[in-house]
Amino acid sequence: MTSTNSYYSSAATDIDAISIAETDIDDEFYDCSDDENTPQMDTEPTVMFELQHQLTVLDKKIENEALYEEALCDLRSLATWHSTNIEVIWRLARACFKNAQNLTDKKRQDVLLQEGIQFCENLLDEEHADLHKWYAMLVGLRTEHLPIKDRLSAGKCFEKHVRLALQLRPTDSTLNHLLGRFQYTVSGLTWIEKKICETLFGQALTSTYTEAITNLEKSEEYATEPDIENKYFLAQSYCKIKSYKKSVDLFKQLVDLPPRNKRQEDLQFEAKNLIKTYSDYC
């Protein structure tokens, strides 16, 4: 996500209950046939063993972008029988996010995001890092096209669940990136946006670029491999506090990394221009 108007696009509202068996979602997106082995009851040990095996297979499947749709279809089928199984539901949320993330049809994207959000909302009292993580990412991705009031409300929800997930898994690189990116966005809110938030919730969303840097640096520390988007927002945060040398160094690092998608290509293109702009300040 290059826009600072959303909290995640590369991480809640009341919605109608979504039927898995009779919804338009399956017709609109994928043909999700239940012809294969159908789970019986969550309480049966043999079924639970088979479920764990299926989830392990799906974890590998979701690593392959070409299989995102198939994984979502499989998880929808599992969720019809295991709607309160948190291990099924957080994976369904992840599949909804991954399938929605790069859709250009925003209406179709929103249907998928709301589907994932709806499934998660029944289990949000549980202390489960992955559930709160992917719920936050679904909420964050929806913010990009919401009106300002809804965007600010979603922002508070996003922050709440990112922080809940971080309490449970403080060394998660993605979660630290999400919080840092949120703090970067909040630091850039206009005066009127802050006043609207204060009117709606009794207090404004507040953060600083220094706070954003702290969490984005943690994301760098905990990451298993360099990440273009984290380096980009970390570099931008250093720019905001006039640490231009650190900023330019980070921009130079990210332009040398292989991009994984069009969004990262756009960030690299922007970074090249910013290197030219800020090199004179170093």
What does this structure look like?
The protein is an all-alpha fold and 282 residues long. The protein folds into two domains: 1-163, no CATH class; 170-282, Alpha Horseshoe (Serine Threonine Protein Phosphatase 5, Tetratricopeptide repeat). Helices cover 65% and strands 0% of the residues. The protein is built from 13 helices and no strands. The chain has helices at residues 24-28, 45-61, 68-81, 86-100, 106-121, 129-142, 148-168, 173-187, 191-201, 209-222, 228-240, 244-255, 262-278. The longest helix has 21 residues, at 148-168. Residues 1-5, 9-31 and 33-42 have low confidence and may be disordered.
User: Could you state the order of secondary-structure elements as H and E?
Assistant: HHHHHHHHHHHHH
Largest sheet: none
Q: What class do helices, strands and sheet pairing give?
A: mainly alpha
Strand runs, count: 0
Distance between the termini: 27 Å
Rounded to the nearest angstrom, the radius of gyration is: 20 Å
Strand content bin: under 5%
| Basic shape | globular
Q: Domains counted in the coordinates: how many? A: 2
What's the total helix number? 13
Low-confidence stretches: 1-5, 9-31, 33-42
Mean pLDDT: 87
What helical percentage do the residues reach? Answer: 55-70%
Subcellular location: Cytoplasm, Cytoskeleton
TPR repeats: 228-261
InterPro entries: RMD1-3_a_helical_rpt (IPR049039), TPR-like_helical_dom_sf (IPR011990), TPR_rpt (IPR019734)
Subunit structure: Interacts with microtubules.
What is the topological layout?
Blueprint: H1 24-28, H2 45-61, H3 68-81, H4 86-100, H5 106-121, H6 129-142, H7 148-168, H8 173-187, H9 191-201, H10 209-222, H11 228-240, H12 244-255, H13 262-278
Helix pairs in contact: 3-4, 4-5, 4-6, 5-6, 6-7, 7-8, 7-9, 8-10, 8-11, 10-11, 11-12, 11-13, 12-13
